[in-house]
Amino acid sequence: MAARLLIVEDDPALAELLVWHFEAEGYDVTQTADGEEALLLAAEQAPDAIILDWMIENISGIEVCRRLRRAPETANVPIIMLTARGEEEDRIRGLETGADDYVTKPFSPRELIVRLAAILRRTRPALAGKTLKIEDLELDPVAHRVRRSGEEVPLGPTEFRLLQHFMERPGRVLSRAQLVTGVWGQDSDIEERTVDVQVKRLRAAINTPGGKDMIRTVRSAGYSLG
Amino acid sequence: MAARLLIVEDDPALAELLVWHFEAEGYDVTQTADGEEALLLAAEQAPDAIILDWMIENISGIEVCRRLRRAPETANVPIIMLTARGEEEDRIRGLETGADDYVTKPFSPRELIVRLAAILRRTRPALAGKTLKIEDLELDPVAHRVRRSGEEVPLGPTEFRLLQHFMERPGRVLSRAQLVTGVWGQDSDIEERTVDVQVKRLRAAINTPGGKDMIRTVRSAGYSLG
DNA sequence: GAGAAATATGACGCTTAGATAACAGAATTG
DNA sequence: CAATTCTGTTATCTAAGCGTCATATTTCTC
Questions:
Q1: Dihedral class, residue B150 (left if φ above 0, else alpha if ψ from -120 to 50, else beta)
Q2: Nearest-CA distance from A25 to chain B in Å?
Q3: Looking at beta carbons, which residues of chain B come within 8 Å of A88?
């Protein structure tokens, strides 16, 4: 399954060029010129990365960026900003709002492709969009579906995000603080104990009655999967 | 066990940006805008690395850097300096005073993250997630797991921290006082005899019944591993 | 080899981290 | 808009883990 990419660019010529190149690279590309629409699409499609022009219609790119960061569903999606040359000021402000990288116009598509690849390699070791598997547990991010030995497991939205977070980092111990920011979003006043409760719920959902626990508790450190 | 990072930056927007990104990377971040406070925090928390802006309130970054180097507790902590573009002069003086690397504004967060990771990989492999190995003993800091000839060894939190401390300094004799500050923290009212007890517990956990002791007691000096 | 100093060991409470259940408010859904 | 699912918080319970101390053992010195 290809990585999904959302391109927010209102110059039709540049947009077309980018779409063409990224599709040629095998990405599954959606494109819009409109900021509001971008937010909707991002929430709906959960893309793996977003390319965002600084100057777009309706809302400024910077505002789109900030709002993306605020929503838990999109808080962790990598964003690359496109800025015009010499807008030093903008560049800095763009980074301040939470973009992961920026590229200055004019740029070669190759450069953008390389940067995106670098970021994805780092942030999504197991690229979302592909089905994640650990032992007999499978999570399909596109279909929003989880199976345990082929049988569908019903999960609530938070449980799903928590499990996806774990499955993207198999074996890794994640502290409660890391889970709070990673699953609930950057600035949430969630009580750390709440993580315990969600982990318990997730355990109850994915563990087979007799079998061993898939989530390991690491005392004074956190939890890990697998 | 997340790496502790101290960020000294007085531009609130940039500071927030950096905190956001590094927390997302899993670092345990403290931030201050004030040079004097930075020195106090550094002494108190013993961070694993410091990001230091050249221009900050109260004392110049360069002076903070110099003083950090002078104090024995912080003399070896890696420091990355942030400098404005083109201040070649500053850059050189920064390195002269003991910074390990510098990054010129404006920079992408990605770049800073990569540089820090590179430095940590060099100075503290375990913090970069590298598995520590001594003979047939392996400690995986990411998974928070210890194996002896492939077989998992269950350890309590303190035992784990103690072992990691030893494994990061193989062969070196560590005094009880050093172990107390290194493993229990700068200010702990721990009795020095307690170290003996934890060492005993660690020995019991990692030594194979018939085999020889992996931890050597150095009378009137301390302990060493390997 | 005796005495002293340092370390090893075993036992004992206490603290605290995590599991769990119950509950109420929020969000969804039909 | 009512019903139901979902979610965050809190209180309680349990047990692992830890620090301390008293005692045993080892090592060093003379």
A1: left
A2: 22
A3: 106
Quick one: B177 exposed, middle or buried, by C-beta within 10 A (0-12, 13-18, 19+)? exposed
Q: How far is the CA of B37 from the C1' of C2 (A)?
A: 57
List CB contacts (< 8 A) between A171 and chain B.
142-143
pLDDT at A98: 66
Q: Tell which phi-psi region holds residue B202, choosing left (phi > 0), alpha (psi between -120 and 50) or beta.
A: alpha
**Structure token pair of residue A108:** 């070669």
Check the CA dihedral B80-B83-B86-B88 and report its sign: negative
Q: What is the mean pLDDT of each run of 10 residues along chain B (226 residues)?
A: 87 83 84 92 89 80 88 88 68 69 78 84 83 94 95 96 96 95 90 96 92 93 94
Q: Looking at residue A142, what is its pLDDT?
A: 77
Domain boundaries, chain A: 4-123, 132-225
Is the fold of B4-123 the same as that of B132-225?
Answer: no
Sequence letter at residue A197:
V
Inform me whether the pLDDT recorded for A126 exceeds 60. Answer: no
For A107, the token pair is: 């740029």
CA gap A205, A207 in Å, rounded = 6
Out of 3.30.470.20, 3.40.50.2300, 3.60.20.10, 1.20.1580.10, the CATH code matching A4-123 is 3.40.50.2300
Which residue in chain A has the smallest CA separation from B111? A101
The reply to whether residue A181 touches residue B24, judged by beta carbons under 8 angstroms, is yes
Evaluate whether B78 touches B119 at the Cβ level (below 8 Å).
yes
Cis omega (within 30 of 0) for bond into A72:
no
For A132-225, CATH gives 1.10.10.10
Output A186 or B68, whichever has higher pLDDT. B68
Q: Which chain A residues are closer than 8 Å to B28 by Cβ?
A: 177
Q: Where are the alpha helices (DSSP H) in chain A?
A: 12-24, 35-45, 61-70, 88-96, 109-123, 157-167, 176-179, 192-206
